[in-house]
């Protein structure tokens, strides 16, 4: 039966000839979605690789099944693998064999695909019983059929005997792949060959036998061959092994005593100590490293009877619900929304039903809760959707909190010394909430994504945070001095005393500048020469609107209405939407509010809007295209916006426009609903410029739109053809790329030719290096994140139009984004 949950396929899919060519035996491959390898059948553990990445089980009938988690995972030296069994153990089918950290393996190994093989065992053949596709642990995947009449070949070879001793130079010793190649090489040689290490011998033609010898780097082995071809066989085999067998990282054969194994760390710190990640929350922090690991929770695995276990689970869930209710009482903004989402997940009927079923089947409350959460979290991770995968953390957070209550353990308060920069493999939302910002001043996470709830919470409490830094983070020792410049996506490890002092001065200067800027933030924003520039804030909720006003925002250039639509079972009604928009408009007290029509799809899924799986979601049904696919939804939203009073405070903005025909379709709906509601006043309708198509046809759009607002996040993604949610290209996605700047210049020119204004509501409006260039290119409205509005206003008030125009022309002539940034730093210095 399947030892893993995941995707089942044939061995041909495995990108390693040893497995694909069945050198070790026939079988299947599973790309896992879970984190535990289970026994595929009952039997004895005959081989467990010292690094814990591969295990062999022998059935009572003598068939040997090898499971090898991921490819080239021997190089991980055990990192990420936690075996639950030892050689000689007898296990039942389904018993856990090896727990593993799937994310760590995915980051560090070429593939997580896991071959499950019937090692060549005479007398058995394998018959697949399941097609390619998803599998769960325990599903039947193949049958072992006894082959009538087949017996182990025991042909006795006679002749001369030749022996040779060699030192193994392979960095990872003789693991599965070299063992398979040795068997292949020996194919036609007329000799019996054994390999011996420390008095234990194995037939060299038996990969399983070789694996049991656990031959490592630097080990001395004896090759002994008997038969007519003995001398040539020994020479060829010794030469093959001494050549390193084409394995990565093999060293020259050590001549003296066996050297310590070459430890291949997942990654090493670069010489300059600078690591790059992905910005989850901007800011600068200078402090020292502290590691954070989730403590293991003891789960009582014995059931005291279904009724008692169900009662324990119900009580634990009720207790957590009460805690979440209490937390909601004193939370605001995104934090409140996230806790509300957790409470909703905890009450999920399917989740509770599957835990109840596991309890009926004999599981304890804790095991049942784990079993209920795991497939849901795995399904989210396996969805291939970065944003959904990030929601798996929320489920794991709930899993942990319920298990803690069941174990009678309190959540330990997180205490750290002052100026701690926390290094973690991952952080759950409740852990970010529990952090005391007087102790922890920054977060660095190995995995994670920039739009996870943990990231949103960090931004909300003003904690600089970098994610996707990778396994190299593990190389940072406790208390190492660090400079975290999350805005620049940089972590500097162990900088010099001078660099640290300079960074501390910069932190102090930023704080002082912010205090001055905040004091002056209430004034309308003008440049030093009197030119009016509107500085607005981007909003997602009424709580954001309050923060925006406190920071001196003069209105909102982007209300991301999707936050009202996501994390819910059904779309909000017209009444609900109208109430939400009205509350935000009231909080802005008459200031303009640009409401963006629903922008879901791509990286922003809504469960009740079934968007079929797409090969290229960023190029598929998203933005206004979703509105056209669901016309009632679009019309309802426009109707709700038109209900807000005073009429005209709300302007409407269309996301992801690619052409003027889309603008016309929305205007038709707007005019019809206005007429129905008897509204005669003008309601402005603008477009977002997020596609290169919109940028280069800005004049055509401006002829019919009331304003243009550039979404630089998407415009950058589409101009550079780099997925904004993909951590591997994240470091190159820079809105100050000359290609993006030229598209912004085109947009401003096109809009001006029709007498329309251009704003920016993407991330560049919050980037102090970008602001002078944007104004120099013709932008007159900037909609930034609320917290940075005072600094942007202070910066604009020091600029002069002539100077920024010249600066913008110089930026357009730069060759690279780095050149533009260097120029911008000089300009603002
Ligand atoms: C943008 O793309 O720049 C933008 C403001 O929209 P969002 O980030 O919400 O996609
Ligand atoms: Mg966008």
Automatic annotation (TrEMBL):
Its cofactor is Mg(2+). It is found in: Cytoplasm. Its EC number is 2.7.3.9. Residues 16-120 form the PTS EIIA type-1 domain. It catalyses: L-histidyl-[protein] + phosphoenolpyruvate = N(pros)-phospho-L-histidyl-[protein] + pyruvate. The keyword Cytoplasm applies. Keywords: Cytoplasm, Kinase, Magnesium, Metal-binding, Phosphotransferase system, Sugar transport, Transferase, Transport. Gene3D superfamilies: Glucose Permease (Domain IIA), HPr-like, Phosphoenolpyruvate-binding domains, Phosphohistidine domain, PtsI, HPr-binding domain. It is an enzyme of class 2 (transferase). Residues 161-248 form the HPr domain. Its main location: cytoplasm. One of its GO terms (biological process) is phosphoenolpyruvate-dependent sugar phosphotransferase system. Pfam families: PEP-utilisers_N, PEP-utilizers, PEP-utilizers_C, PTS-HPr, PTS_EIIA_1. The keyword Cytoplasm applies. One of its GO terms (cellular component) is cytoplasm. One of its GO terms (molecular function) is metal ion binding. CDD domains: PTS-HPr_like (cd00367). Belongs to the PEP-utilizing enzyme family. This is phosphoenolpyruvate--protein phosphotransferase.
């Amino acid at each position: 039966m399947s030892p893993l949950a995941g995707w089942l396929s044939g061995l041909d899919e495995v990108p390693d000839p040893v497995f694909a060519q069945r050198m070790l035996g026939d079988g299947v491959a599973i790309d896992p979605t879970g984190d535990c390898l289970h026994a595929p059948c009952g039997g004895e553990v005959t081989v467990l690789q010292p690094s814990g990445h591969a295990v062999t089980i022998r059935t009572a009938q003598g068939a040997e099944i090898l499971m090898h988690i991921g490819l080239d995972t021997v190089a991980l030296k055990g990192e990420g693998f936690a075996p639950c069994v030892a050689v000689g153990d007898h296990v039942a089918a389904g018993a856990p064999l090896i727990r593993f950290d799937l994310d760590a393996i995915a980051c560090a190994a070429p593939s997580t695909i896991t071959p499950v093989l019937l090692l060549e065992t005479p007398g058995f053949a394998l018959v697949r019983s399941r097609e390619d596709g998803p599998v769960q642990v325990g599903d039947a995947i193949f049958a072992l059929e006894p082959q009538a009449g087949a017996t182990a070949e025991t042909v006795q070879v006679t002749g001369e005997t030749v022996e040779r001793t060699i030192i193994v130079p392979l960095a990872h010793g003789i693991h599965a792949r070299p063992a398979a190649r040795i068997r292949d090489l020996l194919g036609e040689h007329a000799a019996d060959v054994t390999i011996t290490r420390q008095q234990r011998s194995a037939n060299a033609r038996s990969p399983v036998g070789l694996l049991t010898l656990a031959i490592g780097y630097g080990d001395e082995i004896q090759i002994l061959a008997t038969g007519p071809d003995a001398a040539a066989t020994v020479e060829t085999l010794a030469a093959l092994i001494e050549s390193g067998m084409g394995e990565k990282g093999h060293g020259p054969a050590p001549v003296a005593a066996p050297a310590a194994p070459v430890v291949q760390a997942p990654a090493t710190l670069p010489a300059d100590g600078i690591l790059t990640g992905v910005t989850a929350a901007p800011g600068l922090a200078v402090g020292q490293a502290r590691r954070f690991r989730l403590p293991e929770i003891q789960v009582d695995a014995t059931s005291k009877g279904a009724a008692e276990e169900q009662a324990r689970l119900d009580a634990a869930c009720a207790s957590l619900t009460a805690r979440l209710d209490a937390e909601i009482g004193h939370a605001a903004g995104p934090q409140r929304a996230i806790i509300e989402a957790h409470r909703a997940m905890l009450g999920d009927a399917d989740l509770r039903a599957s835990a109840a079923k596991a309890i009926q089947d004999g599981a304890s409350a804790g095991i049942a809760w784990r079993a209920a959460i795991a497939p849901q979290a795995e399904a989210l991770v396996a969805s291939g959707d970065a944003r959904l995968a990030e929601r798996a953390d929320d489920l794991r957070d709930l899993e942990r909190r319920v298990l803690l209550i069941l174990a009678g353990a309190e959540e330990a308060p997180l205490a750290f010394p002052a100026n701690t920069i926390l290094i973690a493999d991952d952080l759950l939302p409740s852990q970010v909430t529990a952090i005391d910002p007087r102790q922890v001043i920054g977060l660095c996470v190995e995995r994670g994504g920039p739009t996870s709830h943990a990231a949103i919470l960090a931004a909300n409490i003003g904690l600089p945070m970098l994610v996707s830094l990778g396994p190299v983070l593990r190389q940072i020792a406790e208390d190492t001095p660090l400079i975290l410049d999350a805005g620049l996506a940089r972590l500097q490890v162990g900088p010099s005393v001078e660099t640290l002092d300079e960074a501390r001065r910069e932190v102090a200067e930023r704080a002082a500048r912010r205090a001055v800027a905040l004091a002056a933030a209430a004034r309308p924003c003008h440049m030093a020469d009197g030119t009016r520039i509107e500085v607005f804030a981007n909003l997602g909720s009424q709580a954001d609107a309050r923060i925006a006003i406190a920071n001196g925002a003069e209105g909102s250039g982007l209300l991301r209405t999707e936050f009202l639509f996501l994390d819910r079972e059904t779309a909000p009604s017209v009444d609900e939407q109208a109430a939400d928009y009205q509350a935000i408009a009231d909080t802005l007290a008459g200031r303009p509010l640009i409401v963006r029509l629903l922008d879901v799809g791509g990286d922003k899924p809504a469960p009740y809007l079934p968007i079929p799986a797409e090969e290229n979601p960023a190029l598929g049904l998203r933005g206004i295209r979703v509105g056209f696919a669901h016309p009632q939804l679009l019309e309802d939203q426009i109707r709700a916006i038109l209900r807000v009073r005073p009429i005209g405070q709300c302007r409407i903005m269309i996301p992801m426009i690619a052409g003027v025909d889309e603008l016309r379709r929305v205007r038709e709906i707007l005019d019809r609903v206005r007429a129905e509601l008897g509204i005669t006043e003008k309601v402005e309708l603008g477009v977002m410029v997020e596609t290169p198509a919109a940028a280069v046809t800005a004049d055509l759009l401006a002829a019919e739109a009331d304003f243009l607002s550039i979404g630089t996040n998407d415009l950058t993604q589409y101009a550079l053809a780099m997925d904004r949610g993909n951590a591997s290209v994240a470091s190159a996605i820079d809105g100050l790329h000359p290609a993006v700047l030229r598209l912004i210049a085109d947009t401003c020119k096109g809009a001006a030719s029709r007498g329309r204004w251009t704003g920016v509501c993407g991330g560049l409006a919050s980037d102090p290096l970008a602001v002078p260039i944007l104004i120099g290119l013709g932008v007159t409205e900037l909609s930034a994140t609320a917290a940075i509005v005072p600094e942007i206003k202070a910066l604009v008030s020091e600029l002069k139009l002539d100077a920024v125009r010249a600066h913008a022309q110089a930026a357009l002539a730069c060759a690279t984004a780095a050149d533009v940034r260097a120029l911008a730093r000089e300009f603002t210095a």
